[in-house]
Amino acid sequence: MSKIKSVTPHVLNVDLKQPFSFSQWEYSSRMTCLIEIETVDGVVGWGECYGPSQMLKHIVNEMKSYLIGEDCMDIQRHWEYLYNRYRDYGQKGLIIEAISGIDIALWDVFGKILNQPVHKLLGGTFRTEVKAYATGFYPVKGDAIKQLAYEAQKYLDEGFLAMKIKVGFGVDIDYEYVKTVRGVIGDKAELMIDANHAYDSIEAIKLGRKIEHFNIGWFEEPVPPEDIKGYQECRRALTIPIAGGECEFTRFGFRDILANRTVDIIQPDTCSTGGLSECRKISAMANAHGVRYNPHAWGTGIGLSANLHLLATLPHNPLSSNPVNPMLEFDQTEYPFRHSIIEETIEQKNGYVQIPTAPGLGATVNRKVLEQYEI
Ligand code: CA
Question: Which residues are catalytic?
Answer without folding.
Answer: 296
